[in-house]
Structure to design on (175 residues):
């Protein structure tokens, strides 16, 4: 995979390669750049030619939110623990408020990452105010179809091409 990443301009980007949940046949390749997080699904059965055609899912980063996370004590601790594999986002609460959330992208599979935390709330002036304590947000549900899709992706490379073209599954609301 290293030559494929180099041809795409990711030679020096932080990377992580790990198996997808519950198997060792399908692997998730994660690359972090200042602009986006990039993820691929790679099978142990992929040929070199197939690796050159793998579809990539891109998840845009939000530099202003990354900077806000860096300015919060709990955000600094999370960055120490998991950086650069953290993705900051704005999450709307059930009451219409906005929270600054950070997701640890080291675990899960493309578009599904179970560990997210609310760190701050947004004021009416657009400023972030730290919460008294970070709050773990509920994980998005994974249904049986998601696991069947992983199995299908191991067996049929064209399925991975189709799955990579779809946007990320919507995340939960911060409660």
């Amino acid at each position: 995979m290293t030559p494929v990443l180099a041809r795409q301009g990711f030679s020096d980007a932080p990377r992580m390669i790990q198996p997808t949940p519950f198997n060792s046949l399908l692997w998730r390749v994660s690359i972090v750049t200042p602009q986006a997080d990039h993820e691929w699904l790679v099978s142990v059965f992929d040929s070199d030619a197939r690796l050159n055609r793998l579809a990539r899912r891109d998840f845009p980063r939000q530099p202003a939110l990354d900077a806000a996370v860096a300015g919060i004590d709990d955000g600094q601790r999370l960055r120490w623990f998991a950086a650069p594999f953290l993705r900051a986002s704005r999450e709307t609460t059930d009451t219409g408020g906005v929270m600054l959330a950070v997701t640890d992208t080291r675990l899960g599979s493309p578009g599904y990452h179970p560990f997210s935390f609310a760190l701050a709330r947004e004021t009416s002036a657009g400023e972030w105010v730290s919460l008294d304590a970070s709050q773990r947000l509920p994980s998005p549900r994974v249904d049986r179809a998601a696991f069947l899709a992983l199995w299908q992706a191991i067996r049929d490379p064209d399925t991975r091409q189709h799955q990579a073209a779809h946007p990320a599954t919507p995340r939960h609301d911060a409660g």
Notes: Residues 164-175 have pLDDT under 50 and may be disordered. The longest strand covers residues 128-136. The helical segments are 2-7, 48-51, 63-70, 73-82, 144-155, 157-165. Strands lie at 15-19, 26-32, 36-43, 57-60, 86-92, 98-104, 115-122, 128-136.
